[in-house]
Amino acid sequence: MKAAPLGLACGDPAGVGPELVERWLGERPDDAPAVAVIGPKSWVRKLGDRHAIPTVAVEDPDSAVEPGRPSVEAARVGWAALERVAAGCAAGEFRAAVTAPVGKAWLARAGFPFPGQTEFFASRWGGEPTMAFAAPGLRVILATWHIPLMSLPRHLGPVSLERAVGRAAEFCRRSGVARPRIAVCGLNPHAGEGGLLGTEEVEWIDPCLDRLRQSHPGLSCSLPSDTVFRRHLDGEFDAVVALYHDQGLAPLKALAFHEAAQVTLGLPFLRTSPDHGTAYGLAGSGKADPRSFTAAVALAERLTGTEK
Q: Which residues share a beta bridge with 134?
């Protein structure tokens, strides 16, 4: 039986999303995965004719959308594409979703009630999401993500840490690593330095990791986050669990900005995306780098088990 295609959602049409999709279609190799592109009616009609691919149309905006000029109307198109790809995955029309960037602030102005796409897909599909990233030599899994840093103590605890460790192990196994070696970042500088620079590692993080090590024998204790990513790149670990958004994303993007892709774990269906935003300042210039979007398509293909 032929596998369902990947659903490629256009993202905010005022951003770089549509041109990333077009670049990927124009450069895709002969063995590229089957895809269906979702976007505004006038755009996908031309795209389908040019590339001989299936397309799914959402309504064109009420007023013209120009690349580089974000608007509520453009944000609503991106939102409609998200709704369509989510519904298509749930109906078996698509085997996974690959989403181009959307602008969170403009989506909020349009009434989008979620802090990001991760939370949106969890609301539509169910499940408990975990945000993760992959790049050559790197796998990064976040214990928390779209929350203000000041509220981290309310969200980070044994439950969120255990979930992230379990998802890291799952991610590694789906990537072909049978016995994952998982590093966990400490919360404080130098992982607390034995309690001198913070007590969370001594009080609950390391005891939690000691307990989890019974199920995950390759799990580290809490480690200084300023060196753990170098150790990961050097091959000492198969994945790193970061405790909050920028602890994981700052080194990932410094090391592999153009090669990394995001994947949402823990949901009934797979969703991947580039690791960057809408780049309104580049939209329409033809200068947007397509490598992260290409990596997102390849990751979706690989994790759904259909890569040739």
A: 139, 261
Terminal CA-CA length for the chain: 15
Q: Are 15 and 103 in contact (CB under 8 A)?
A: yes
Could you tell me which residues come within 8 angstroms of residue 253 by beta carbon, excluding any fewer than 6 positions away? 260, 275
Nearest in space to 40 (alpha carbons), one of 96, 68, 78: 78
Q: Which residue has the tokens 């192990």?
A: 169
Half-sphere exposure of 193 (CA within 13 A, CB side): 5
Question: Which three-class secondary structure state does DSSP give residue 206?
Answer: helix
Bridge partner list, 74 = none
What's the one-letter identity of residue 247?
Q
Split the chain (308 residues) into runs of 10 and give each run's mean pLDDT: 90 96 91 93 90 92 90 96 98 97 96 93 96 96 94 94 97 94 97 94 97 96 97 97 96 94 96 94 91 95 72
- Enter the pTM of the model: 0.91
Give the contacts of 145 (CB within 8 A, at least 6 positions apart): 116, 118, 131, 244, 245
Please, what are the domains in the chain? 1-128+267-308 (3.40.718.10), 130-265 (3.40.718.10)
Please state, in angstroms and rounded to a whole number, the distance separating the CA atoms of residues 294 and 23. 9
Residue type, 146: H
The three-class DSSP label of residue 220 is: strand
What is the largest distance, in Å, between two alpha-carbon atoms of the chain?
Answer: 64
CA–CA separation, 74 vs 101, rounded Å?
Answer: 12
Beta strand 261-265 with 270-274 is antiparallel
Phi and psi for 80 in degrees, rounded to 5?
A: -60, -40
